[in-house]
Every structure is written in C-alpha cells, then in structure tokens.
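quick q for whoever's on today - can somebody do inverse folding on this one?? i tried earlier but teh output was garbage lol. tokens:
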C-alpha cells in the first residue's frame, strides 16, 4: 500500500493513525472508536499468530497476545515514518524484522 501511494505521488499513511493523531485528544468518542478499531486489528494479528503457531510456522516462544501488540505498534510507527520521509522504506523493513522475529 505504501509503495502504491508513493507511486501515485505521496504517502498518506494510515487513515486510522492519522485520525488518532489529529482527533483523539479532542473527542472521547473518537478516542474510543479508534481504540476499538486498533483493538480489532490487534486481535486479528493475535488470531493469525495463534494459527501460525498451531501450524508450527512460528517459534513456540512467541506469545500471540504480546506479539500482536508489538506488531501493530511497529507497523503503525513504520507507516508514520514512511509518511514523514515520503519513501516506502520503514514498512518494508518492519515486515522483514517481523518475519525474522516470528521465526527466531
């Protein structure tokens, strides 16, 4: 997605992350909604990690709930860095790091 945005002329970042940065301190309702969205994304990562562990595709030492928070945080930070740099590098590097972490 970052690469497609870059090819189109600019990297806009994550819509939910952007909205969080701009509006979460202004509105409790907005803050609750973006928290809910990020929690659903985190749960999706956790579920995927549980299935990967059951298929012996990840290290048995990985805690899916803890790793899902780390992955979500890393990806959101990488998206923000790519937006600041206007280059699709941080997300690609984050994905490489996550793959290495999950196999370690």
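ok took a stab at it. sequence:
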């Amino acid at each position: 997605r970052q690469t497609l945005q870059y090819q189109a002329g600019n990297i806009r970042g994550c819509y939910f992350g952007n909205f969080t940065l701009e509006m979460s301190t202004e509105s409790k309702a907005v803050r609750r909604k973006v928290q809910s969205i990020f929690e659903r994304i985190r749960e999706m990562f956790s579920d995927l990690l549980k299935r990967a562990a059951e298929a012996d595709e990840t290290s048995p030492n990985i805690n899916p709930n803890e790793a899902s928070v780390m992955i979500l945080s890393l990806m959101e930070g990488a998206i923000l860095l790519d937006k600041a740099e206007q280059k699709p590098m941080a997300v690609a590097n984050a994905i490489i790091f996550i793959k290495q972490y999950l196999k370690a």
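fwiw The CA atoms of residues 11 and 83 lie 5 Å apart. also The two ends are 27 Å apart (CA to CA). so keep that in mind when u check it
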